[in-house]
Each structure stands twice: as structure tokens, then as C-alpha cells.
Amino acid sequence: MKKTVIVCLVGIMVSLNVSAQDLFEGIGTKGSQNRNIKGAEGFIVPQLSVGFETFIETVKIQQESKLSNVRNNLATVGTNKNYVRKSGAAKVTTILSVDMGPEDFQSLTNDFQKILEEEIENAGFKVTPLGELVKFNSYAPIKERFGNKTEKTKGKTAEVEVGDGKVMFLPEGGIMMYNGDLRSVSMGIGLIKNLKNLMQESNSVILMQNLDIDFSNVELDVDFKSRMRVSTSNVGYYKVTSSDNSTSTDASYNVYPVMKIKNNNMGIVDKSGSMPAAPVSLKEDFVSDIPYEANLYTDKKKSESLFTQLFSLKRKVDVDFDPIIVEMSKEAYMDASRHLFRKYSQEFAKTLAIGAKGGK
């Protein structure tokens, strides 16, 4: 079996390029939802929905550079041709290869919940752990109301059928009620009352998070090249000019074994028991500050096997391109995930502290 190794360990340091207070849209130094956490003394997190990406397609589209456009326009001088600026695209596919079962993803998600609660508490807030929310009388009707939705979410991941390349998990005891838009929550009078009562009983603001973790960081450098060739020849008494267009897209890419949180849509319940229409969200990917050890390579046969496994394909798939397989041990994957989430939670907690003071 032919295996082309690209890299075994990428020793790069990826640092956060935005400050903590500017990581999120909606809270921080500026943000429309600072008013919902201003003066908060405590927080509770009944929902932490985590999507673990296992298959990624990274696409970059780039318009032809101005220099290239001028050069190709000059090539048409003296002809009856017009050159139109073009665009090029490139795609890199990465597949995760790690011996992770449902119980491992579940354990990792449970750890994430504890890490998030710890870091919010370290920022100076009171935090009631997920497992202790049952002591509040107002929490029972909320959990009961969203019990069916929570079970459906868990049912989809019970057999880890990847589907679109992502497996979803909730921490044990958590509920699923908010997907990042108000259409996923029926904000009736009863629910608003329940949420308001829970905040009053716990003296805490309710946070609900939906985030996705990507196992690799892909950088694409796309160069679109075009040219017009013009040739002139004499045939008898006539001068004949012919031209043809030649275009190509060149792309170079780097795949780094560095984990990142690629998005997070978060709901914050306001003091009236309602949720704003626009969720709080990450402004850009939150990339880990350290790489992990992994083997990156292309292997046609293994790619076909992974695709069949990931997408539950009944027939053999023919991979006619070269996905990058990112292969690591379970321990390396879980350690890297915990480290990423610890860093994220620390920055998120700092942002909450800034927002609780009203921002600037």
C-alpha cells in the first residue's frame, strides 16, 4: 500500500491574533448583549453542544490579481478581443483518523463542561455546576420541556454516524434547547417565566453554547494565472491573426495539526427571560497556541476505507483525489482538545468579566 508522508510533526506556534475582549461579536469591550450580563454575579451553563469535525473540505476562491489582469489586458492590444478578469478556486480535503468511540467523545465533552465552569469561576463569578442545577425547582420544568429534543440529539450520536463529517455531543445531564437561532426555541410565555425564575433562584445568567472543533488548520495560497497568446501569419495576400486563451489555477497549501474552534453561536438569556434574536458568536476561528503530534499523509486505499467508515457507505467509494489523512493517537487527540478548550474557556471568561462591567 503506497503511502506518501507529508509531515510527521509540525512544530509551529499559532498565537491568538485578537485580544480576549474582541473575540466575540455581541459581548466584550463593545456589544449589544453586554447589558444582559452587566452586573452579573454568577453564570450557569445548562447547554454545551459540541460538534467534533472528522472530515473537512477547505475551499478558497480568489479573484485574479490586478497585475495579472493588466498583463492579460495588454495582450489583447491590437486585437478585437476583450479580456475579462477571472477567478480561481482551490480545495483541500482532510480526514481525521483516530481510534475514538462514542464513549471517548462523551468523556471529552464532560471534561469541556467542567473546564468551562472552572474558568468562569476563576474569573470571579459564582458558578453552579451542571450536575447541581436539579436543586433549583425552576430547572425541572425546563429540563422536562426539552427532554425529547435532548434525547433526539443524543440519539443521532449514539452510533456516531458522521453524516456531514461532524459528530455532536452534549455533556451528561445537559439539555439541548437552542441551536443558535430563535427558530429552534419556542419562546412561549411559560418558558420565559421558567427561565426568569431560574435566573432569580440561582442568581445567575443562563448561557447556552453551540461550538464546533476542527482537528486541523489549513492555509491555502491560490494564484490564478491567465494569458492570451496572439499569433500573426501571412497566407497568400491576407494577414491572419489568431488568438486563444490559456488559463490555469495554481494552489499551494499547508495542513497544520493544530486544533481550533471554528465557530460558536451562543444564547444569553436576558433579565426578562427572553433571548435576543442575534446570538453571540466568535468573530474568527479560535486557534490553539500549540500543535500536536500527528502523521499527515495521503493514501488512496485508506482514504477510501475512511470515507466508507465515516459516511456509512454500502458500496465501495472510489477516491479520485488525494485527501490529507491526519492520523494520531486517542490520547494525543483528547489532550489537544482539552488544551484548546482550556485556552478558549480562559479567554471566554475574561470576555464575560469585561461584559459584566459594561464593556469599555
Structural topology:
Layout: E1 4-7, E2 24-25, H1 34-37, E3 42-53, E4 55-63, H2 66-74, E5 87-97, H3 102-122, E6 126-127, H4 139-145, H5 147-157, E7 166-169, H6 189-202, E8 205-214, E9 217-235, E10 238-256, E11 260-268, E12 280-282, E13 286-287, E14 295-298, H7 300-310, E15 324-327, H8 330-356
Helix pairs in contact: 3-8
Description:
- 29% of the residues lie in helices and 32% in strands.
- With 360 residues, the protein is an alpha+beta fold.
- It has one domain (33-76, 89-225, 248-353).
- Strands 2, 3, 6, 7, 8, 11, 12 and 13 form an 8-stranded mixed sheet that branches. Strands 1-14-15-5-4 form a 5-stranded mixed sheet, with helices on one face.
- Residues 1-20 form the signal peptide.
- Keywords: Signal.
Give a quick precis of the structure.
Residues 1-20 form the signal peptide. This protein is an alpha+beta fold and 360 residues long. It has helices at 34-37, 66-74, 102-122, 139-145, 147-157, 189-202, 300-310, 330-356; strands spanning 4-7, 24-25, 42-53, 55-63, 87-97, 126-127, 166-169, 205-214, 217-235, 238-256, 260-268, 280-282, 286-287, 295-298, 324-327.
What are its keywords?
360 residues; five-stranded mixed beta sheet
The best one-word shape is: globular
The share of residues in helices is: 25-40%
The number of strands is 15
Give a quick account of the main beta sheet: strands, pairing sense, barrel closure.
8 strands, mixed
Give unreliable regions as ranges.
Answer: 4-21, 160-164, 240-244
Output the number of helix runs: 8
Number of domains: 1
Estimated radius of gyration:
26 Å
Query: N-to-C SSE series?
Result: EEHEEHEHEHHEHEEEEEEEHEH
Query: Structural class given helices, strands, pairing?
Result: alpha+beta
- The portion of residues forming beta strands comes to 25-35%
Average pLDDT over all residues:
77
Distance between the termini: 59 Å
